[in-house]
Amino acid sequence: MIEISGTMKALSSLHIGTGKKSGTFADTLEYVPGRTIRGMLGYYLYTNHRDLFEEMKISEDNDMSNTNAFFKNALPMSSSEAAGYKRTVASSSSLKWCKKCGHLIAEGTKACSNFVDGKPCLQEGKKVSGFITLDSLETGKLEKASVGTHISTKCPITRDGHTSPGSDFEISPYHVKSIVPGTVFEFRCLVEDSFVNKVKSALHEAGIFSGLGGYRSRGYGSVAFSDLKEKPVNDIIHERAKELSDKSNLMMVTNSSMILKDENNSVIGFDSTFKDYISKFCSLRGYKDDFNVLFHGQEAGSGLPRQIITRGVARGWSLKNGNRVSEIVRCIGPGSCLMVRGNPELLAALEIYGIGEMTNSGYGDVYFMEGQV
Ligand SMILES: [Zn+2]
Predict the structure, then answer these.
(1) For residue 102, how far is its CA from the centre of ligand 1 (angstroms)?
(2) Can you tell me the distance from the alpha carbon of 240 to that of 244, in angstroms, rounded to the nearest whole number?
(3) In the predicted model, what is the mean pLDDT of residues 35-50?
(4) What is the pTM of this model?
(5) What is d(CA 228, CA 212) in angstroms, rounded to the nearest whole number?
(6) Which CATH number fits the domain that encloses residue 302?
(7) Ligand 1 centroid vs 120 CA: distance in angstroms?
């Protein structure tokens, strides 16, 4: 497998539906789900390169061992003129940041220990939701991804005349929130080696001719891919494993929603079902199954691993049913954390492939960092 990574820039406004409409207002997500990118490329390939569509098994929804293409959520990048574009991740719910100066509050303390104008800051901290730069985790200074949005009011037009409805029609304007043109996202996908060049050129064309998200007939949804680089997945895993082996107190953070299922029920939280997914992953990808959850319950007697869970809702968009919502499931939300221990090569592989259901559509993305739940 090869990872293709680069940037995806909005050329026009982007509307990424949240699945919830309140009245005449349509809200937008501030990132582009992997399933939306998969849908864009899948639709393009289906209509233009049916052979590649079939070979890549891009429409697989159920069996993740039976697909050759994985699309990660495209998260907004933070940009400043001096520093360029920075990668962002979902903020961990175990971390608190100072309400006043934005410094990370040290573990086990309640007040900010940063010095402002020579005096200790001493403000309390709060959790942060949304996306923060990876640099924030290194420097301890909060840097959020800022996504510009705007709201446009539209009037329905009639299909035959492309004019506003006449006086005998009830006029019902609607309001569309969208991400502004120029916003840059990080793009990542994994594909089999032999598809790399075809996928790269298909992405360039699909971004312009198909586009993504809602209101495309109104000119929304054009994106441009740039700086597309490729790297063998095994090299990435090897390098990342070296970094992880130097860290102690490892914490897993969910970088997107994670869907875990026991029969047909969603499992919210990390328990034996989660471990079953890891075991299955190990046998599929050839890793030794030595992933151990640190059991806080060994002291507390509860038997539960140390974890913080946020809740989320995942929507499965089926390529087969005309891009309709196929199901809505409860899931583990982004920013959830779990204390873990395991073979660094396995942890690095989990970062690359994700955990759980529909990892080909951006669900179940995780990263590991030093931390404490
Ligand atoms: Zn402070």
Answers:
(1) 6
(2) 6
(3) 94
(4) 0.90
(5) 19
(6) 3.30.70.1900
(7) 8
